Amino acid sequence: MSLSSDSSTPAAWRRAAGVAAVGGAVGIAGLLLFGPSAMEVPGTAHPVQQPLSHVLGHNLAMPGAAEVRFGVPPERAASDQTIDEQADDAVAEEVTTQAAPPPPPPPPPPPPQAAPAPEAPAQAAQRPGTIRLPQGGTADLVRREVGPDRVLPVPDGIDQATWWGTGLGAESGAAVFAGHVNWQGRRGPFAELWDARIGREVSVMDQNGRAWRFAVSEVHTVHKDDLPARAAALFGQDGPHRIVLVTCGGRWEGGALGYEDNRIVVATPIS
């Protein structure tokens, strides 16, 4: 706007200067009171703390500057609301306090479907029968599985042996037969493994009466401490099909330790 006709007088100039001085003082006071450096912005990290955006991995944006009141007490900020804002708040409060309608009931669950039965392993379908060792000793076979301690259980009966692994006639993998060398003073049929020779025949008959013939191809005496390192090669379920016969022997260590060695005989199918 333009100055009045007496703007050229010294009094007018003094009045204008006074207004400017007051305005400048208000401006500086406003910066001191409202400036971001004088107040901590709600929702932002304290200058000496790690920023929240570094923790969450997000860049958190502040609300618009016009919506933020710096240094204004909460009761003063509430009194500065316009009539429309207060009316909107009242409507919102009324809406939020009304009871919401109950949700519709959930749809009934679909009828349960029977889970498909797991396929039995091929070797489980082949029922164990008997094994005949090179010198004529025989043992009844009992199906067993390796326990959580990775130990293959052996039947207590001296005339029985464990069958574990693949089935007879499989394309690959080992069928493992394990029996006691002796039991309660009696010599078991698997004691014959200590006399096994390359080329001697071993036969296994399943419960249906079919005989499977094998020829001894390997003979090993392995200390029990060394057996875990060779277990995959000897008893693994890959590689050519074979039967592996196992018993104990060597020096008696006593108690639960038993014998110190294992006698292992590997035989391959006779075509």
TrEMBL record:
<feature type="transmembrane region" description="Helical">
    <location>
        <begin position="12"/>
        <end position="34"/>
    </location>
</feature>
<feature type="region of interest" description="Disordered">
    <location>
        <begin position="77"/>
        <end position="139"/>
    </location>
</feature>
<keyword id="KW-0472">Membrane</keyword>
<dbReference type="Pfam" id="PF04203">
    <property type="entry name" value="Sortase"/>
</dbReference>
<dbReference type="InterPro" id="IPR042001">
    <property type="entry name" value="Sortase_F"/>
</dbReference>
<feature type="compositionally biased region" description="Pro residues">
    <location>
        <begin position="100"/>
        <end position="119"/>
    </location>
</feature>
<keyword id="KW-1133">Transmembrane helix</keyword>
<dbReference type="InterPro" id="IPR023365">
    <property type="entry name" value="Sortase_dom-sf"/>
</dbReference>
<keyword id="KW-0378">Hydrolase</keyword>
<protein>
    <submittedName>
        <fullName>Sortase family protein</fullName>
    </submittedName>
</protein>
<dbReference type="InterPro" id="IPR005754">
    <property type="entry name" value="Sortase"/>
</dbReference>
<dbReference type="GO" id="GO:0016787">
    <property type="term" value="F:hydrolase activity"/>
</dbReference>
<keyword id="KW-0812">Transmembrane</keyword>
<feature type="compositionally biased region" description="Acidic residues">
    <location>
        <begin position="82"/>
        <end position="92"/>
    </location>
</feature>
